[in-house]
Design brief:
alpha+beta, membrane
């Protein structure tokens, strides 16, 4: 859903908490892009360290890409 939101509303801004003290508006692409990179990083980290399989992280990144492509159509 985040991917479709980013594709359909590229200039939207998201209100997000910072240190549970204040709220800050950030661009949707920055917020969602950070989330995507977070999923990708931790998926690779778990894969490299063999601590877990990282399947859940890779499923999130794969569905993110598929959803973004579907929203473009």
């Amino acid at each position: 859903m985040l991917d479709a939101y980013m594709v359909l509303y590229p200039r939207a801004r998201i209100l997000t908490p910072v240190l549970l003290i204040t709220m800050v508006e950030v661009p949707a692409w920055a917020y969602v892009g950070f989330w995507f990179l977070y999923q990708l990083f931790y998926g690779n980290l778990e894969f490299i360290t063999l601590s877990q399989s990282g399947v859940a992280y890779f499923a999130h990144t794969g569905s993110f890409i598929a959803g973004a492509l579907a929203a473009l159509v």
